[in-house]
Amino acid sequence: MATRGWNPADSEAEEEDEDETSSPSPSALSSPPSRLRYFDRDRHVAFLEMMYNLIPQYYQSQEINRLTLAFFTISGLHLLQALDRVDKDRVANWVLSFQAHPRSEAELKNGQFYGFHGSRTSQFPPDENGVSAYNAGHLASTYCALAILKTVGYNLLTIDKESILISMRNLQQPDGSFMPLHVGAETDLRFVYCAAAVCFMLEDWSGMDREKAKEFILNCQSYDGGFGLTPGSESHGGGTYCAVASLQLMGYIEDDLLSKNTSSSIINVPLLLDWSMQRQATDGGFQGRANKSSDTCYAFWIGAVLRILGGYKFIDKIALRSFLLTCQSEFGGFSKYPEMLPDIYHSYYGYTAFSLLEEPGLNPLCAELGMTDIAALGII
């Protein structure tokens, strides 16, 4: 697969949550305003095909996140019903080459994580004794790897899941949160979500203590109903998605909670619904936090939360579609804000947003896994 460098929410779907303060302003990197007032599927397919075959120079500094960017490209093509543009066997073999493997069962207890590396750059060779002292397996890269494999129809039952799951438990902290790799990293809801998604896709929950993870998630719900990435932090669209989707994947909440007895739910559903609905701004787009600009990606992060809760029917879909079209580039893809150049991260979440809006020509979305329903069900 000819992918060469890349970027997402801090560059990883792992990072499921973009730092808006470091993003360029809407006036920066501007391109001519899009004159397209319809979803131009063909341009988007061409944009992703270009990303699949040759990554632009801008993304070469993102080589460390190659698997994440590959996920956006390949899953994006599947959303656009254009998966025939990729060599599925070649993609699967390429992804499998990034898995870290212990040399023995004893090595599984050395505290390292035997998931997937994000790129060749983080895939250090063994020393002269054959010991991989610098294994940099990463939870977010592992989520992306498994998601790509499911998307191309690879049978995950044949993968070395024991190494992934046994070593993943080493990443869970006493408070129930997860680090993304075995040393020197932060802990927050992004990586709880990655761990839950990995267990769900592998159909084996031995990789985490679900009760501890649930308690951490519940401690992240704020007074206003949303979820911060850590207990006591500001409610945020990315953190809220990670919390709700994780609870749904772990079996602690049901789909369409609003049609059921929400008083028995472990989360405050009415307050969460109110917070989520308030994120649709007057321009029709969704913001990640109060008093922030609308941003393409939050049409997924908040939209998916509402879909899981059963509240998506309450949003102004016409206004949202209109906002998203202002972020659609004449070159294909979507930008963060109107009148900016497109990027692969916001393009992917633009496609997921249009899938939630049931745009013709797109595959339906599995909101809790962030990929197509077909891939999530494993029926490709």
Tell me what you see in this structure.
Mean pLDDT is 88; it is low at 1-34. The radius of gyration is 20 Å and the shape is globular. 53% of the residues are buried. The protein is built from 13 helices and two strands, in the order H-H-H-H-H-H-H-H-H-H-H-H-E-E-H. The protein has a two-stranded antiparallel sheet. Strand 1 and strand 2 form a beta hairpin. Helix 6 (189-202) packs parallel to helix 8 (237-249). The protein is an all-alpha fold and 380 residues long. It has a single domain (41-124, 132-377), classed as Alpha/alpha barrel (Glycosyltransferase). It has helices at 41-53, 66-79, 88-96, 139-151, 161-168, 189-202, 210-219, 237-249, 269-277, 298-309, 317-326, 344-356, 373-377; strands spanning 365-366, 371-372. Its EC number is 2.5.1.59. Residues 22-34 have a biased composition (Low complexity).
Distance between the termini: 20 Å
CATH architecture heading: Alpha/alpha barrel
Task: Write down the overall mean pLDDT.
Answer: 88
Helix fraction by DSSP (H/I, runs of at least 4): 25-40%
Q: Which band does the percent of strand residues land in?
A: under 5%
Note the overall shape.
Answer: globular
Reading the helices and strands in chain order gives HHHHHHHHHHHHEEH
**Biggest sheet strand line-up:** 1-2
Overall strand count: 2
Write down the domain tally: 1
Based on helices, strands and strand pairing, what is the structural class? mainly alpha
Low-confidence stretches: 1-34
CATH topology: Glycosyltransferase
Q: What is the tally of helical segments?
A: 13
Largest sheet: 2 strands, antiparallel
CATH class: Mainly Alpha
Q: Radius of gyration over alpha carbons?
A: 20 Å
GO molecular function: CAAX-protein geranylgeranyltransferase activity; metal ion binding
EC number: 2.5.1.59
Cofactor: Zn(2+); Mg(2+)
Keywords: Magnesium, Metal-binding, Prenyltransferase, Repeat, Transferase, Zinc
